[in-house]
TrEMBL record:
Residues 7-203 form the Isochorismatase-like domain. Transmembrane segments: none annotated. Pfam families: Isochorismatase. This is Putative isochorismatase family protein. GO terms for molecular function: hydrolase activity. Belongs to the isochorismatase family. The lineage of its organism: Eukaryota, Fungi, Dikarya, Ascomycota, Pezizomycotina. SUPFAM superfamilies: Isochorismatase-like hydrolases (SSF52499). Keywords: Hydrolase.
Length: 215
């Protein structure tokens, strides 16, 4: 039986505020209609992996939520949109980290949490959530730059962005928009190799299922 790496699943900003149809800052259309299905399946599968391991020592799920400082944002703490979407609602015992900016590492203890979890050994950090070009991209870049899954002896861990378990909105100025799918793909590709490994939901779930069989 091969030793499983220590892993963490970072679930970023899957909150009700992103479902707000009248808040036009998100954009007129969204990429990846399979986002919800893929993200939900990964959360379910990872919880099975945590349960199979018997504790959060080897595998740890971390939920991040955005607490906007804007008085009009649907993600402000006093708004209904601050709540997690039902399929991504944390369970008892799962860590919740609240941020105020794009990066999940700024103004939070996420870096410390991950370094303690990986215990100075190489690990794997899986990232899913919203939105591709804002909080997901920023957090992925910082995870790679900080080397949060690297070992104390310099061994390199792996940041894995599950590209089809995130989504982006069309962006533009003056009515000229870059369509959501193009924006989504461009940001995923810009993160490939330098900051993260890009994988698909089906492949990641298969890996986790194999680990469960081996454990």
């Amino acid at each position: 039986m091969s030793k499983q790496p220590r892993t963490a699943l970072l679930v970023i900003d899957i909150q009700d505020g992103f479902l707000e149809p009248t808040f036009n800052i998100w954009g007129p259309s969204r990429s990846n209609p399979d986002f919800e299905k893929n993200a939900a399946s990964l959360i379910t599968s990872y919880r099975d992996l945590v349960a199979k391991s018997g504790s959060a020592t080897t595998h740890k799920i971390i939920h991040v939520r955005h607490a906007s400082k804007s008085s009009t944002s649907p993600l402000r703490p006093s708004a209904p949109g601050f709540a997690f979407q039902p399929f991504a609602t944390p369970r008892d015992g799962e860590l919740v980290i609240t941020k105020n900016v794009n990066s999940a590492f700024i103004g939070t203890d996420l870096e410390k949490v991950l370094r303690v979890h990986f215990g100075g050994e190489t690990g794997m950090l899986f990232i899913i959530g919203l939105s591709t070009d804002h909080c997901v991209s920023t957090s992925t870049r910082m995870a790679g730059n900080l080397g949060v899954c690297d070992a104390a002896d310099g061994g390199q861990g792996e940041v894995v962005l599950v590209g089809d378990a995130t989504a982006a909105w069309a962006k533009g100025v003056g009515g000229e928009f870059l369509d959501a799918e193009t924006l989504h793909r461009a940001h995923i590709q810009s993160l490939q190799n330098e900051f993260a490994t890009i994988r698909r939901t089906e492949d990641v779930r298969k890996s986790w299922e194999e680990w469960m069989v081996d454990s």
